[in-house]
Amino acid sequence: MKFESFSFAPEILSAIADCGYKTMTPVQQQAIPAIRRGEDVLASAQTGTGKTAAFALPMLQKMFENPRELQHSNTRALILTPTRELAAQVAENINDYSKNINIEVLTIYGGVKVATQAQKLKRGADIIVATPGRLLEHLLACNLSLSNVEFLVLDEADRMLDMGFSTDIQKILQAVNKQRQNLLFSATFSTSVKKLANEMLEKPKVITADKQNTTAATVSQVVYPVEQRRKRELLSELIGTKNWQQVLVFTATRDAADVLVKELNLDGIPSAVVHGEKAQGSRRRALREFVEGKVRVLVATEVAARGLDIQNLGYVVNYDLPFLAEDYVHRIGRTGRAGKSGTAISFVSREEERTLADIEKLIGQPIRRITVAGYEVGSREMLLKQIQKRRSFAKKQQRSDNAGEQVVAERNMQGRRVTVGKSSSTVKYKKLK
């Protein structure tokens, strides 16, 4: 189905064409007419399937049909996202869609001076894209009113709840104009998302464009078994021998990300890092250099799992498997977007085998394994036998020590002074005077 089927304004259709969009994705086909009719929407679709256009395009059309002047410290549409990166990406997309119409878009997130944002808020905006924490700061400081909001969008709602924004979202909901259209988009319909939907949506149109927790058919998945201590070495070898040019690598912690970037640069592989402790300017610069090809590898923590939209990204590497199996789907969704092919690689140590099993159960399929010569992982069964053997020895030793302690106790009872020597089996004693 083409976008012309829904009678968008010529100005919007022209912008859509300039973005290279030709046919609608399943979530767009279902969400756009519902939003145009003014219905609340609860939509689930895997990442990379055009969710931003699904809610932004009909919203822009309705605002274009009913133009209003900017109002100081207010907005017509509020879009909440979990991360700065996603907020910036959503705002950029909306600016692309609305370039031929008079729409003011403003982003509000941490890492930027509050005073600078407050000045921009005073002028007002048609659309504000924000992270919950920073938006709440401005609400509490009376820099912003939400009394005229016509559209409230929660993008990646499940991620916001996972990150602990539930309380902030509830406070924001209390401040928003009650006469509004609500659009809740989420990668999954978790219990917490369903509870939030029941609280804020009125007879919503429920859209499920894909089977829950599935991965895109355009993403080829593979697992490399490797010892934890040799992951960096294997990563460098694969990048070099296979000539990977644009690689997004996920680590479990910020410290691990910093160490990995340092090691990769020492190996002659230009790399940059993105995580929560980096300043916003540093994060933007790292992403820009990665997109421009100035660095070959971008190392990130979970903060980037849903906020990055990099065209033609060829490879995603799970250097460490995510703590939650669901996050695997979001991570690898950074590649294979918009119908293009991509590859997701996961390094799995012995300790991560259980997590891998959870991931395979979640996505409903086994992931192909490739063993690289020289990086083989020792037999897991042999490891368990060794652990059991050590435990058995420890128990035996403990029984021997307990026996020695019993001898000591018995001789003390007989009124003897007891001294235990260096060997647990040697007991010396002499009569008390």
Automatic annotation (TrEMBL):
Gene Ontology molecular function: helicase activity
Superkingdom of this protein's organism: Bacteria
Keyword flag Hydrolase: yes
Domain DEAD-box RNA helicase Q: 1-29
PROSITE patterns with a match to the protein in the record: DEAD_ATP_HELICASE (PS00039), HELICASE_ATP_BIND_1 (PS51192), HELICASE_CTER (PS51194), Q_MOTIF (PS51195)
Keyword Cytoplasm: no
Motif Q motif positions after renumbering to this chain: 1-29
Domain Helicase C-terminal, chain residue ranges per copy: 218-378
Short name of any one Pfam family annotated for the protein: Helicase_C
Domain Helicase ATP-binding: 32-207
InterPro entries from the UniProt entry: DEAD/DEAH_box_helicase_dom (IPR011545), DEAD/DEAH_RhlB (IPR044742), DEAD_box_RNA_helicase (IPR050079), Helicase_ATP-bd (IPR014001), Helicase_C-like (IPR001650), P-loop_NTPase (IPR027417), RNA-helicase_DEAD-box_CS (IPR000629), RNA_helicase_DEAD_Q_motif (IPR014014)
Segments of this protein annotated with the region Disordered: 394-433
SUPFAM superfamilies: P-loop containing nucleoside triphosphate hydrolases
Keywords recorded for this protein, A-Z: ATP-binding, Helicase, Hydrolase, Nucleotide-binding
Similarity comment text for this entry: Belongs to the DEAD box helicase family.
PANTHER family to which the protein is assigned, alphabetical: ATP-DEPENDENT RNA HELICASE RHLE (PTHR47959:SF13), ATP-DEPENDENT RNA HELICASE RHLE-RELATED (PTHR47959)
Name by which UniProt lists this protein: DEAD/DEAH box helicase
Classification of source organism: Bacteria, Pseudomonadati, Pseudomonadota, Gammaproteobacteria, Alteromonadales
